[in-house]
Write a structure and sequence with these properties.
The structure is a single chain. With 65 residues, the chain is of the alpha+beta class. It is 43% helix and 20% strand. The chain is built from three helices and three strands; from the N terminus they run βααββα. Strand 2 (35-39) and strand 3 (46-51) form a beta hairpin. The protein is globular, with a radius of gyration of 12 Å.
């Protein structure tokens, strides 16, 4: 299993110039691949995990420094 540094949703959203809500929506709908998200069995709230390496790839694809 490959491990990577994780980033908070708030920090990732800042770096991608979008709101945290938009980032969560895009991750849940599969429109952006910067980590993992889902819902744990028996829980109402979802989880979102953003990986630094995937975030950097998305920033490069969008031309964000």
């Amino acid at each position: 299993m490959i491990t990577s540094e994780t980033v908070t949703i708030i920090q990732a959203a800042r770096e991608l110039h979008m709101s945290p809500q938009t980032l969560r929506y895009m991750m849940a709908s599969g429109k952006i691949a910067v980590g993992d998200c889902g819902r744990r069995p028996g829980k109402k709230r979802g989880f979102y995990k953003v990986f630094r390496s995937m975030l950097e790839e998305e920033k490069a694809r969008r031309g964000i420094e």
